[in-house]
């Protein structure tokens, strides 16, 4: 599967997903965030930690999430919902892992009220932070109108 992130003006981006189970999909005009697209953060951390049943694993199997639309309009298919019913807990675990790694990498607090325990050990945090460094460097090299292709 390929995930193509395209940098847009005003801290926005598009992404297109090709070669997954189900139709190719896109997400248009999403807010990029302070350093890189959140979905690129997921790709970097999930790849580094070999999380195959997280957000991008679910997308590869045909799941879609809010804002994703088919590249070529087709009749509505509900198969993506089945993927999330079967693997939703794993997707949520991946979300916690990715968010924790991003907190550490970006210097946000990892202690205090509402933060909870780390779902990652020190080795996993180090792997994830190295992957985020590489992804951020790749994203920073993309000019407005340019793209970054991530192979899943």
Radius of gyration over all CA atoms, rounded: 16 Å
| Mean pLDDT level | 90
- Helix-strand pattern: EEEHHEHHE
Structural class: alpha+beta
Summarize the model shown:
The chain is 42% helix and 19% strand.
Structure commentary:
By secondary structure, the protein is an alpha+beta fold. The chain has four helices and five strands; from the N terminus they run E-E-E-H-H-E-H-H-E. The chain has a five-stranded antiparallel β-sheet with strand order 4-3-2-1-5, with no helix packed on it.
Question: Would you spell out the secondary-structure blueprint of this structure?
Answer:
Blueprint: E1 2-8, E2 12-18, E3 25-31, H1 38-48, H2 55-60, E4 68-70, H3 79-106, H4 122-140, E5 147-151
Antiparallel strand pairs: 1-2, 1-5, 2-3, 3-4
Summary tags:
single chain, 5-stranded antiparallel sheet, globular, 4 helices, alpha+beta, 152 residues
């Amino acid at each position: 599967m390929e995930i193509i992130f395209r940098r847009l003006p005003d801290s926005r981006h598009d992404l297109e997903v090709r070669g997954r189970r189900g139709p190719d999909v896109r997400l248009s005009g999403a807010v990029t965030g302070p350093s890189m697209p959140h979905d690129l953060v997921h790709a970097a951390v999930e790849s580094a930690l070999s999380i195959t049943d997280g957000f991008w694993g679910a997308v590869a199997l045909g799941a879609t999430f809010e804002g994703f639309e088919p590249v070529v309009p087709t009749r509505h298919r509900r198969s993506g919902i089945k993927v999330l019913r079967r693997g939703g807990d794993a997707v949520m675990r991946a979300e916690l892992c990715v968010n924790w790694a991003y907190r550490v990498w970006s210097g946000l607090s990892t202690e205090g009220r509402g933060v909870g325990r780390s779902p990652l050990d020190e080795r996993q945090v180090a792997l994830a932070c190295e992957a985020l460094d590489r992804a951020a460097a790749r994203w920073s090299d993309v000019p407005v109108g340019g793209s970054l292709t991530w192979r899943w």
